[in-house]
Design brief:
Structural class: alpha/beta
CATH class of the largest domain: Mainly Beta
Largest sheet: 6 strands, mixed
Strand content: 25-35%
Shape: elongated
Number of strands: 15
Strand order of the largest sheet: 5-7-9-11-14-15
Helix content: 10-25%
Number of helices: 4
Number of domains: 2
Radius of gyration: 19 Å
CATH architecture of the largest domain: 3 Solenoid
Length: about 220
């Protein structure tokens, strides 16, 4: 994995940050990383931060077309170069991260917790725009809708439909897991791994996903843990 290429989830899709080096090598590394995540990135909108690299119309257009063939959309180019920024605008690409709509601003949830508790129980559906972060385990009785996000240092259990963004083991706990009655997240992370096993997405039976040897494994959610 190229350390000069970093991928993380944002409200509008995926943010890819490209560091220093020869652009040809960086582009090759970028495409290889995305290909490895083919099942995860399908349909994603890409914001590409290329720093000071200068791209002209032919290069940028070819990259956009290649990404399109992979099933993702190059939506925004972030650059410190006026030339690159102008090129992006001429191709109809954005050059700024979009600001949240007032109705979509993440709102804090009322989840009062007694000091020392290792987890919380949230009895509600998390709708688009909500973000819940907790330094422990999170159990949700309700759905996690697309556009909602849950980040926990421990495991995440959804007694409902999981269709939003979840990050379990956010502080590096590779023993954390994610399970849901209907498993179809738009983005799934466990510890430092960004993944969504294709075999798990959209299945009707309850499923649990955990890491084994650094790889995500999906199983029916009928095993006592």
């Amino acid at each position: 994995m190229n350390p000069e290429i970093k991928i993380k989830g944002i409200r509008d899709g995926l943010l890819i940050m490209v560091g220093d080096g020869e652009w040809a090598d960086l582009q090759t590394g970028l495409l290889e990383q995305l290909q490895q995540r083919a099942g995860f990135i399908q349909g994603a909108r890409i914001t590409l931060d290329i720093g000071t690299h200068i791209l002209h119309a032919a290069e940028m257009g070819k990259l956009r077309d290649t990404l399109s063939e992979m099933g993702v959309t190059l939506h925004t180019i972030l650059s410190q170069s006026p030339i690159t920024e102008t090129t992006a605008q001429s191709l109809g690409l954005g050059t700024r991260l979009s600001k949240p709509h007032p109705d979509r601003v993440a709102r804090p949830l009322d989840t009062s917790v007694r000091e020392g508790e290792p987890g919380i129980l949230v009895q509600r559906t998390l709708r688009s725009g909500y973000k819940l972060e907790y330094p422990g385990h999170v159990t949700i009785v309700g759905d996690v809708n697309p556009g909602a996000e849950v980040v926990a240092s421990g495991s995440i259990i959804v007694w409902g439909r999981l269709r939003g963004v979840v990050h379990a083991g956010a502080e590096g706990d590779e023993q954390a897991f994610v399970c849901a009655l209907v498993f179809a997240p738009t983005q799934l992370r466990i510890a430092g791994q960004i993944t969504i096993p294709p075999q798990a997405a959209g299945r009707s039976q309850p499923e649990i996903v955990s890491l084994r040897d650094g790889q995500a494994v999906a199983e029916p959610w009928d095993v006592k843990r």
